[in-house]
Amino acid sequence: MGRERLRRALAIAGFPAAIAAVALAAFAFRAQLLGLFRSSEAIRDAVAATGSWAPLAFVGLQAVQVIVFFIPGEVVQIAGGFAFGLWGGTLWSVAGILLGSLVNFGVGRLLGRPFAAAVLKPERLARVEASTAGGKAVAGFLLLFAIPGIPKDALTYAAGASGLSFWAFIVVSTMGRLPGILGSAYMGSAVFDREYGAAIAVLSVALVALFLGFAFRERLHDLVDRLISRLSGPRR
Fold it and tell me: What is the DSSP letter of 141?
């Protein structure tokens, strides 16, 4: 019983404590962080400065972005394409995002629903749970990870607090994010190759998709619920 109380206390206090720790670290290293995340070019230069360790440095940076989920992920992913090309940028972004997502998943599983509610807000978590309950978990999380506008990094905490299995999480979180990662890596690669028309075209499509995702997120979530119900079949 004592362990359960301790776990619940950690779950409730964990998110505010984590935010406070991140805020203190960000303040202490504000000059370095502002310089690093001001642009994809700055990230590329910082990663390139590590020489042969550049891929590992980028994977670590990408993982940190997922864990500290309010850092824009697209900036890092575009930098991956800028630094390593389309396929290299996609590969290392996938590796870093998966690493960070597994950390978040483990934290969500350890601290449970109260922590996930603090990250996502209770009403949003309730909608996620309704879309992924029971046998709908795999299909539900796959669709949620694929829809633009949904906070995918924060969603990984909710996945950990759910009944989704470890291996299913790896598959659905990777497959759902892959189109967006490919698009960002292509954009960075196109900029490096000075194919500005292609980069602008991809950016325009991404911005439209993001706008539609935010503007129609309630309708999209309702659509997800209907699709999941069909995929899961009739209830018994």
Answer: H
